[in-house]
């Protein structure tokens, strides 16, 4: 529920690509097949990293260049620097605003109602 609310908030700010990228990287790190790893790395690159990507993330030239040079032989850590940058961006910028948003307030209210119903099943 929290992820869904955060994603809705990011959509309202036109920055949902950040959480999408972070989640894609988490999925990528679980990949064990080298064939699947190459395909997933290329998909992440084309969706988020390359110039004019449909969900292009905001990372510095150096990080983007490093990924571009290494994408032909990806490793499980090839997106780590970019993922750290995006995580930091969300933690310092988007998430504090989310905590003040209506989406978050609604989430907290729903959670309180659920907890109350667990303790008071006759309601």
TrEMBL record:
Domain (RGS): residue spans on this chain: 1-108
Superkingdom, natural source: Eukaryota
Pfam families (alphabetical): RGS
InterPro entries from the UniProt entry: RGS, RGS_sf, RGS_subdomain_2
Protein's name according to its UniProt entry: RGS21 protein
Encoding gene (name): Rgs21
